Amino acid sequence: KMHLALSLVLTLCGLLNSIFCETQPNPKRDPHPVSSRKTSPPSHETDTDHEAFAYKLFEALSVEYHRKNLIFSPESISTALAMLSLGTRSTTLSNLVAGLGFDL
């Protein structure tokens, strides 16, 4: 009975959310999204940036964890740090970008 009550409450919350919540119109929407986009760097340049970051990270971690098994995901770590950089400014942003090896 508890599962049924919980299911009903969650379903009701979802329905009320979809009925009463409105999305805000975006007045700054770009009428020409494709033509005004900045071009991204070629993928081979991005790949070398990620490879350099992965190598530097491996070197730093292997010194710290000498003679131990080392498993990490440089892609996940660089993605997390890139997401972190979205909330930073000034010196912190510059340090994160430099640490990741990104050329902005």
UniProtKB/TrEMBL annotation:
<protein>
    <submittedName>
        <fullName>Uterine serpin</fullName>
    </submittedName>
</protein>
<feature type="domain" description="Serpin">
    <location>
        <begin position="51"/>
        <end position="103"/>
    </location>
</feature>
<feature type="region of interest" description="Disordered">
    <location>
        <begin position="23"/>
        <end position="48"/>
    </location>
</feature>
<feature type="signal peptide">
    <location>
        <begin position="1"/>
        <end position="21"/>
    </location>
</feature>
<dbReference type="Pfam" id="PF00079">
    <property type="entry name" value="Serpin"/>
</dbReference>
<dbReference type="InterPro" id="IPR023796">
    <property type="entry name" value="Serpin_dom"/>
</dbReference>
<keyword id="KW-0732">Signal</keyword>
<dbReference type="InterPro" id="IPR042178">
    <property type="entry name" value="Serpin_sf_1"/>
</dbReference>
<dbReference type="InterPro" id="IPR036186">
    <property type="entry name" value="Serpin_sf"/>
</dbReference>
